[in-house]
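Good day; I would like, with your permission, to put a structural problem before you. What I wish to show you is a protein chain and, alongside it, a tokenised description of its three-dimensional fold. Thank you for your consideration; the sequence and its tokens are set out here:
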Amino acid sequence: KLSSRGIQEAKQLHQKFAQPSSDQDEPHQLHQILPEVELIVVSPLQRALQTLEIGLYSHFKNSRSPHQPAIVATPYASERVYLTSDVGSHIHELQEKYQFVDFESGFHPTYHPPHEWWWTPDISSVDKAPPREWRPFGQGQKYVNAGEPERSFHRRMQKLYDWLDSRKEQTIVLISHWGVIQYLSGHDFQNCEVKVMPFAKLRRHGSGLTAEEMDSIFIKGERSIPALKNDEEIQ
């Protein structure tokens, strides 16, 4: 969930969409883009859902306009599993708490069971070796959960890219996380930072770096930047 700082940043995000920006370097006025939004895609991790609720949803909830974008959660947009904060909540709990979000159409009935839609290690075979530990270790670090392997994360990002590409909507808001946005765009985002990007600039195959290089970048990002990132893209 969001910290007190995260809640404050989400409130600042709300203001970004509420009034014209005085930033001369910002080519897009976010309050003018809102009426064009057709779809909001959000990670099912609660910190992303809270950011959606505080920073963006209230604009549509309180609007008298008949235009209401679809709001869809998909596990494809959740953060690479690093710490327990990247482990999700039961879908029934989320549905009860965030009733304005669609928790069905963005979930695969086989790969995203309600009780465990996030990545978990495959323990179906006792012969399978445990995933390679890519997070810092050997200096007393202890992890409650396994870390999501780079290969699994890349497959998931490609599925997210393909899912977005298949959508008919032209203006899409993506509320996600640092690792996801860095993979798709190649850029580091600060908390609740918003950028407008053409879909053609997103990358299905990420940066093309080696697994070790990607792990290093992700570790540095987790250490230097709090987990929640926001982005808006135009498809």
Residues 16 and 30 are 7 Å apart (CA to CA). The longest helix spans residues 150-166.
